[in-house]
Amino acid sequence: MTTPVVNPPDAILLAFARAVRAAGVRVTADRERGYLEAVRALDITDPWAVLVAGRATLCASQDDLARHDQVYEAWFGGELARLLPAPPPVHNQPYAEIEKDADPAADDSDQDDLVTAMASATEVLRHRDIARLSQRERNALARLFAAIPVHAPTRTSPRLSAARRGRIDARATLREQVRRLGEPGPIRHRRRTDRPRRVILLIDVSGSMSAYADAFLRLAQRFVQAGGPVEVFTIGTRLTHITRALTVRDPDRALIAAGEVVPDWSGGTRLGEGLAAFLRAWGRRGPVRGAVVVIVSDGWERDQPEALGEQVRQLRTLAHRVIWVNPHRGKDGYAPVQQGMAAALPHCDDFLAGHSLATFHELSEVIGSA
């Protein structure tokens, strides 16, 4: 009798994501990666976590949710028993008032209602204002950051590299003919290739941004861990370079390391001075040229707003794209009336919200397509 072959967990999860795509859900490669990362971040031994992670990362509509659940029920009916030998644990929900019947003989309908409520609570949490979350809800939200798809924007390299197609490389073709002693050989080609474009994040950690700074640093840590050329700075009363601190793989430990480096957490705001110091050290001959620069701030400026506008104008002449993210942008009735915000906005390419996990997904897409 032979021992049955058990597929690795990632292989099973990836095959499931592709089965969902075959069922009519638009599952992209980014969503597949986000699904795998979300399951790892939650608990791969928890079937409810596997279900909720799939609903949060693979689906975009109610129809997608219905198709996903049908595939989940059919797919994991047999595979899940081998992958997860232990019975699913009971969850204490930090962000929804959900109680599961302690009776082990609870019927399947109660379990279905629990799963539906959990998925609904996760979707609601994605759109909640971070500043209004309780500490328990923030802890639950932190686990969902692993599902944000992150990839670096690209630029076309000025150098030509060998390729199967493209313009004919006369020198390489001639060298090939000489190597063959005049016998006919393949024609060599070369073309310009795409390279990752640098991303620079400037995060305001002043007192007015304290409710959102932690979440934006978690997002910055995701970009650093993605492996592309990324630099992260904090701006308050001074400029602080924190990229090295965010190279720690564990997000919570990375934020602790960043907090030990930043001396002006929840202090005053001097955006103009901070940007001026940034341009002096990293400007014309530094990595700013051709980069995607993301400024995260509510726009409150302690000094002259005209100076802030001038620094953003200079930054725009060097960078490929300047994106300003304001947590208040997504709130009803908001208008950029702050003097600093009004002075900087004409020199920005994009003005985005940044108050919820859903807006972080949007920001990641804008950066990746810049």
Structure characterization notes:
The protein has 370 residues and is of the alpha/beta class. The protein folds into three domains: 9-147, no CATH class; 154-196, no CATH class; 199-368, von Willebrand factor, type A domain (Rossmann fold). Helices cover 47% and strands 14% of the residues. It has 13 helices and nine strands. The strands form two sheets. The chain has a six-stranded mixed beta sheet. The longest helix has 22 residues, at 62-83. The N and C termini lie far apart (57 Å).
Give a brief rundown of this model:
The protein is an alpha/beta fold and 370 residues long. The protein has 13 helices and nine strands. The model is unreliable at 1-6 and 78-102 (pLDDT under 50).
Number of strands: 9
Q: Assembly type of the shown chains?
A: single chain
What is the count of helical runs?
Answer: 13
Strand content: 5-15%
Going by helix content, strand content and strand pairing, the class is alpha/beta
Strand and helix layout:
Layout: H1 9-22, H2 29-42, H3 47-58, H4 62-83, H5 108-127, H6 135-143, E1 154-163, E2 167-168, H7 170-179, E3 189-196, E4 199-204, H8 210-226, E5 230-235, E6 239-241, H9 251-261, H10 271-282, E7 292-296, H11 305-318, E8 321-326, H12 339-344, E9 350-353, H13 357-368
Parallel strand pairs: 4-5, 4-7, 7-8, 8-9
Antiparallel strand pairs: 1-3, 2-3, 5-6
Helix pairs in contact: 1-4, 2-3, 3-4, 3-5, 8-9, 10-11
